[in-house]
Design goal:
It is built from eleven helices and twelve strands. The chain has 301 residues and is α+β, with helices and mostly antiparallel strands. Helix 1 packs parallel to helix 4 and helix 10 packs antiparallel against helix 11. Strand 7 and strand 8 form a beta hairpin. It has two domains: 207 residues, no CATH class; 64 residues, no CATH class. The protein starts with a helix and ends with a strand. The longest helix is centred in the first third of the chain and has 17 residues.
């Protein structure tokens, strides 16, 4: 059996991997919403030709460990090491006085962020800000039957708005671990022409959430993809927005995508529904009531 030290090392490594899985080209990214989100959260601090310095102390590392690493003791160096390849830029290591009664010296890692205008870099800087300033508002979820705090009303109502890193499983992973499969039920789609189509009616999906269990058992990604394909073939415009529902334990959550006509209709739908069901999806989103997830970015596994 693994020793406590070995388990802690493994869990700390897993924590680092969770921070680094954005080192990939996004399958989808919501540029318009991210730009507004970035401006709201960081722009008051980060102006043109200015940078923001983010410091990670021992005390802050403990808080991050408590909120995101299941209580595993993660050091400032491990957090900075996990962020370095993602963030880039300059890092410094030094000592400064902590805000503790003992007034003892702590090791401090400083990250310097430059203003950015690309959606992917904006997302990364938002992640860094949330991690260091609001680590209790980030949720890493890979099993909705266990990790439920993120969709409780009390949690959603808090500020700042919570961000979810949703690691949706492949078909094989779901069957191996006995967790819900990645099933995206298309609900509605709006085209650049302004036309809105209620997809759930075409699939015969219910409005009453109590009726969902039987539909979840019969989910077929081919049927879900074909319904959207038929609708998009009848419509000349690109998809402006599309919403799905995914099963949680005893309820569902709505996923809201706004591609704003920037993606090929068929490829966009196929990658989400069919490839997501077979291989899983890594998803980052902002959480709203019901629960709704405004998807900021997705990554293929």
């Amino acid at each position: 059996m693994a020793s406590n030290n070995q388990r802690q090392m493994e869990e700390a490594e897993e924590f680092e991997e969770r921070l680094q899985w954005m080192l990939d080209t996004p399958q989808f990214i919501d540029e318009l919403h991210l730009d507004a989100f970035y401006d709201a959260v960081l722009q008051p601090q980060v102006k043109e030709k200015e940078s923001i310095r983010v410091e990670i102390t021992d005390a802050e590392a403990k808080e991050i460990s408590k909120n995101l690493a299941a209580g595993v003791d993660v050091s400032p160096g491990q957090i900075a090491g996990a962020l370095r390849p993602v963030v880039g830029g300059s890092f410094e290591v030094g000592g400064r006085r902590s805000i503790s009664r003992e007034k003892r010296k702590n090791q401090t890692h400083t990250i310097e962020l430059e203003p950015v205008h690309t959606a992917q870099r904006q997302l990364i800087q938002l992640m860094v800000d949330y991690l260091t300033e609001h680590s209790d508002r980030i949720f890493f979820v890979d099993d909705v039957s266990v990790q439920k705090e993120w969709f409780k009303h009390e949690s959603i109502q808090k500020t700042p708005r919570s961000i979810i890193f949703f690691d949706l499983p492949s078909k094989e992973e779901a069957e191996s671990y006995g967790i819900p499969k990645t099933m995206l039920f298309p609900m509605a789609v709006e085209f650049s022409s302004g036309k809105l189509v209620k997809l759930y009616e075409k699939l015969g999906l219910p409005d009453d959430k109590n009726e969902w269990p039987s539909y979840i058992k019969e989910f077929d990604p081919k049927d879900a993809t074909n319904v959207i394909k038929e609708v998009t073939e009848e419509e000349d415009g690109h998809i402006e927005s599309i919403s799905y529902r995914i099963p949680l334990e005893n309820t569902t959550a709505r996923l809201c995508f706004e591609p704003n006509g920037q993606y090929n209709n068929g490829t966009f739908v196929y990658n989400l529904i069919r490839m997501g069901y077979e291989h899983g999806i890594r998803l980052i989103g902002a959480v709203y009531m019901q629960p709704d997830i405004r998807v900021l970015a997705t990554y293929r596994k």
